[in-house]
Amino acid sequence: MGSFRGHALPGSFFCFMGLWWSTKYILKYACKKYKRTCYLGSKALFHRIDILEGIIIIAMALSGMTWEQFVPGGPYLTLYDYKEGQWNQLLEWQHCTMYFFFGLLGVTIILCYMSRSLPVSLAKLMMSNAFFVEAFIFYNHTHGRDMLDIYVHQLLVLIIAVTGLLTFIDFMKSNIILELLQPSFILLQGTWFWQIGFVLYPPNGGPAWEPTDHDNIMFVTICFCWHYAFSLIVSGLNYVFVTWLVKFKLKRFCPSEIGLLKNAEREQELEEEM
Predict the structure, then answer these.
(1) Which end of the chain is more exposed for a tag (fewer CB within 10 A), N or C?
(2) Does residue 262 surpass a pLDDT of 70?
(3) Is the dihedral of CA 221, 224, 226, 232 positive or negative?
């Protein structure tokens, strides 16, 4: 990850998953709110979406681990260099560990929706666990680095820790506000990974940022707030678009049927209790 591409890759992953989860949660909420009982709002479709989601997360995790291990100059699965008598590129191994826990999340999602013996809420617990592990890794990621490098990663740890906390609270008691807020922080994490790449590894040979300049620290603080505002605006616009789509454009395809609605609500209540 010690390059611009190394930060752009996880940034792209988290941006995609933030938008994915935002759209999914809003769609579920809107279908229930506006009484849409067609296949688009059915439990069967969302189960298929969740299984596809698990496969995508596993593919992303494997891609990230492969990148970290086999990029030119990478560790190539060698943890300890016996010739030199020292550990081999532990930063890359830390990144692989992060990807590994998100891979476990993908496996958990698939198992939860394919096996009736596992509660669906286990996926949320595994997701919070993955974020807490990621926060722990990046908290211990910048020893001995420059002030600017440490600061941008501290902000990243803050985002990850808040995301993990929101996910854990949502696991304890499901709430639509938390479900809508959590993806915005995941999107924020993705855009901030990109920002770290621009700050520490300017692309196309751009001028490097002065790591000890206090003005750079002040600008990064402002920039972080802009990223946060951007993630909230995107999430809000996504909410408006999806609810408009469900309320007006799907009306002809998703008629409200009282009998089906009652069954759907009962299934939703049972799922939330689990």
Answers:
(1) C
(2) no
(3) negative
